[in-house]
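quick one before i forget lol
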Amino acid sequence: MIYTLTLNPSIDYYVTLPVFEAGQVNRVEQAEKVAGGKGINVSLVLKNYDVETEALGFLGGSTGQFIRNELEKQGVLTAFTPIADETRINVKIRADQESELNAAGPKIQEDELNALLAAFETMQAGDIVVFAGSIPSSLPQDLYRKIAQVLTERGVKFAVDTTKEAMLEVLPLGPFMIKPNHHELGEIFDVEITSKEMAVPYAQQLVERGAENVIISFAGDGALLVNKQGAYTANTPAGKLINSVGAGDSLVAGFVASHALGRPPEEAFRYAVTTGSASAYAFGLCTKADIDRLLTDVQVVELIQS
């Protein structure tokens, strides 16, 4: 089973209008509510790959029930931990430029956290867990490391797409995949990364520190994969950017799904970049048809061989 962990999910309320003017009354042309959160996005895209997935995290109140219902309608298994506080609502504005209003989220009680942690004690070798998103301030900031320790002892692989601090904490435990963008990679080493070639030695250091596969995203300029076998670059297929929300999560889903389907890392990387682009070019998360349509436009080229 591929599990996703979303510690601070949300209802994402999308509003579409031609131009957003701050301080003025804005007339919305279209509005839509969807289940949101980085891990939830990964689960939804995994399901579009026909890969079984179960979503974990915290849900509370009527907003939490809405998210659970939406995921189950789309065939995603759910095992969220119930909480007393209400799950948050975020507002995503699609206008002449994208804007977001993200709420802080609920406060998690100690007994609620312990109930979530118990779920990881039952996982088995062959399972994969995707940590996606930041750790809310009401939770221990070393939470991912603690969970990763349990998973490592049980032979469970884990992938990480989170903040710099939380990612660096889990590196010694051998994550299957991490996905910083080139700005985040530069922050880790206090340098400005201006090209994929420049990023390679820094990504190699992350491999040496424990990561099995490091994917560095460069937005419209494609992405870089570095592992012990070498370094590979992939282009972004041509298309019109419609929605950047969820594109990075889709890239993670594409890589993890491809791995689960038995594809080698370079081919999984090609699917990952295609999947991320397909979501960026769609209203909402991509479908399998979106991925298949773009796949032939993505080429993986080896930069160096270790």
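fyi The mean pLDDT is 93.
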